């Protein structure tokens, strides 16, 4: 299997999911779009993951590479119909690329927060053997306001209706982060845009509190990450 990973900032990589890729001997290629790296021929890959980032889906003037990225996502899902996983910005880009819309998340969701599976989510293979309520790291001020017409909403929270969705048979995405590692919160807190969003939502000095919350939830994060990874591989390549 050959995996293409689209990244938008160096610190938002597959995180803990890299451990499972390594254990399974999966070849993966990271493309750092914000550094001008081109998207390689899509036909060379079997699956695509799209990670998070500090930019918004509509920031095409400051980040012109978003335009070919959306085009690649649309072609991947609609034409090639190959397995896709999007996280945070990747979730929003999937919606935007396929005819949905994104808008401001008010209030922003930042913290270790609960996400509830919908009835459709409880029966979807991506969440097989996972709890109906999961606690996950959230760090976003944009949400999917309207999913694509053929999307199925798989998870929600009180503040954000579309926490996870499936589009077609093999494209899944989550607004929250499943890839969290022990140092993720600290690494992201070193990025000005992330720290400013954190402190404007939770107050000055809130990074330490969020890191402590993540530490307490880390065992659950790790278990959910592995199960979701196994479910993706099984469902995507069934």
Structural summary, described in words:
The protein has about 240 residues and is of the alpha/beta class. It has a single domain (about 1-235), classed as Rossmann fold (3-Layer(aba) Sandwich). Helix content is about 35%, strand content about 30%. The protein has seven helices and nine strands; from the N terminus they run βαββαβαβαββββααα. The protein has helices at about 15-25, 65-80, 90-95, 120, 185-190, 190-200, 205-235, and strands at about 1-5, 25-30, 45-50, 85, 100-115, 135-145, 150-155, 160-165, 170-175. A nine-stranded mixed beta sheet has the order 2-1-3-4-9-8-7-5-6. A hairpin with a 3-residue loop joins strand 8 and strand 9. It starts with a strand and ends with a helix. About 45% of the residues are buried. The mean pLDDT is about 95.
Described by strand count, sense and barrel closure, the largest sheet is: 9 strands, mixed
> How many strands in all?
9
The CATH architecture can be given as: 3-Layer(aba) Sandwich
Arithmetic mean pLDDT: 97
Series of secondary-structure elements, N-terminal to C-terminal: EHEEHEHEHEEEEHHH
| Global morphology | globular
| Tally of contiguous helical segments | 7
Number of domains: 1
The CATH superfamily turns out to be Class I glutamine amidotransferase (GATase) domain
* Percent range of helical residues: 25-40%
Cross-sheet strand order for the largest sheet: 2-1-3-4-9-8-7-5-6
Helix/strand-derived category reads alpha/beta
Low-confidence stretches: none
Percent strand? 25-35%
> So what's the CATH class?
Alpha Beta
| CATH topology name | Rossmann fold
- The gyration radius over C-alpha positions equals 16 Å
First and last CA, distance: 13 Å
């Amino acid at each position: 299997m050959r995996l293409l990973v689209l990244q938008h900032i160096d610190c938002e990589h597959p995180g803990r999911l890299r451990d499972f890729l390594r254990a399974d001997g999966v070849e993966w290629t990271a493309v750092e779009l914000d550094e001008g790296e081109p998207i390689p021929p899509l036909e060379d890959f079997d699956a695509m993951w799209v990670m998070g980032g500090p930019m918004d889906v509509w920031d095409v003037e400051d980040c012109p590479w978003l335009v070919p990225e959306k085009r690649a996502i649309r072609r991947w899902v609609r034409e090639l119909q190959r397995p896709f996983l999007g996280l945070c910005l990747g979730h929003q880009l999937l919606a935007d690329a396929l005819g949905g819309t994104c808008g401001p998340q008010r209030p922003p969701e930042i913290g270790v927060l609960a996400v509830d599976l919908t009835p459709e989510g409880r029966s979807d293979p991506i969440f097989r053997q996972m709890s109906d309520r999961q606690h996950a790291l959230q760090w976003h001020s944009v949400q999917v306001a309207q999913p694509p017409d053929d999307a199925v909403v798989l998870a929600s929270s009180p503040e954000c209706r579309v926490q996870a969705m499936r589009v077609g048979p093999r494209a899944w995405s989550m607004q929250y982060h499943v890839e969290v590692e022990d140092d993720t919160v600290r690494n992201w807190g070193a990025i000005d845009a992330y720290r400013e969003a954190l402190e404007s939502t939770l107050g000055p000095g809130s990074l330490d509190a969020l890191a402590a919350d993540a530490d307490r939830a880390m065992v659950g994060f790790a278990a959910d990450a592995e199960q979701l990874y196994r479910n993706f591989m099984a469902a995507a390549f069934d």
